[in-house]
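Q: Given only this backbone (71 positions), what sequence would you predict?
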């Protein structure tokens, strides 16, 4: 239980987490950045940012399909 509290109290902000998740969607990360993120990212922020990223990705795909089909 202490480990869970310790992990969720990591210091990186949500914006830094969102940036890391954004770059992970492209698969472009330096090894040093990955190691830094793994040590400092809050797992709850990663999950939230990942879900938001997926929703934005799906919305963009739906928008592109609607534009292509409409023409």
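A: Predicted residues:
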């Amino acid at each position: 239980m202490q480990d869970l509290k310790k992990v969720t109290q990591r210091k990186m902000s949500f914006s830094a987490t969102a940036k890391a998740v954004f770059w992970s969607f492209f698969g472009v990360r330096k090894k040093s950045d990955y190691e830094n993120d793994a040590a400092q990212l809050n797992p709850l922020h990663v999950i939230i940012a990942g879900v938001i990223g997926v929703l934005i990705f799906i919305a963009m795909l739906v928008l592109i399909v609607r534009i292509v089909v409409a023409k």
